Amino acid sequence: MDFSRVEVTGDEQAFLDEIRTFLGKHVTDEVRRRDRETGDNFDEGVHLAMGEAGYLEREYRKPEDGGFSRVESRIWALERRRAHAPWVTWGTTILVAHSVEAYGSPELRDEVMPGVFSGHVRMCLGYTEPEGGSDIATCKTRAVRDGDDWVINGSKMFTTGAHNCRYAFLITNTDPNAERKHKSLTMFLVPLDSPGIEIQGLWTVDGDRTNIVYYNDVRISDKYRLGDVNGGWAVLRGPLDAEHGVVAAATDGLDDIAILQHQGMFMGTAVDTVAAIVSRPGNDGRRRIDDGAVADRLGRAVARIEMALSTPNMYGRVAIAQTMRDVAPELMDILGSASVLPTDADGAIDDGASEYLYRWAPLCGIYGGTLEVFRNMIGQYMLGLGRPVYAPVKS
User: Under DSSP, is residue 151 helix (H, G, I), strand (E, B) or coil?
Assistant: First the structure.
């Protein structure tokens, strides 16, 4: 593994300066405050400014097609995180846009892609159903052919960003009698302003907003179908692999080595803050870090975080999410009762970082599937242990 520092060229340093200036202008304290209050993880003004500056298209494109160079792409990702720029809706939009380009008709691509790059078109993921859990192939949302149209009925949970998006990347069941559930799925890009769609907000324990979306006799043209009828699993695999973190990182070291690096970076910043606090003398002149128990617990937390951030692929997403769950209460306990106060509250000892990490950790363990699902996937597909057996053991 190469730990050497990447030396930037003059042009790359100029790009870094440009990005920092741009983010400093647009991702203001007011933007971050509003994002905490709404839980949207999206700001239209910032997003449109990124589109107008050409950053959205350059992030999407490959270097040979006019996109960021590899180093520029890394600079862009890191600086956006450091600025705490709202980004989730752009992340889902990128996933869907690649499927639109790969499986959409020319007419649909012409309708969607220019707005993606300007920032006016955003897209969300319509996967999970109220009774479906992590197995999205058990889809109950029905799409029935009616001439040149399709009529959709059903509901989807955890459709994050739907209220800020123009389209939903929707998985539907078009053949309920199929022998294999994966052969019954068809994907659509559903315009969210279609009659019969109702979006209701849901707020999670960490303050983020997601949505439940109801589809009641929603009629859309066949032009919004992506891929073949009953061939939706092929369309879905690419976005699922990216979301699950099974896409291999490039060998140049300029990619995240695992999904959830953004969350892991926040965790690392939180533990650094705690370390700084306990290293300062208190009113009695003593430093808490000089207490052996505090030093031991903090050291273990730092070691766990470093290990998690260094773990690649799907292993890494499990390691980061589990470490967040384990470390957050430790950090709060080290800091004491003032750590329960949230960001911007008077007396919050670390400006609410540990408290937010504690609330965020459970959600990071279910993004794209539960930790248990990912552990099963690791055992089955990466370690070759076979399919898990849930039947009771016979005596």
Answer: strand
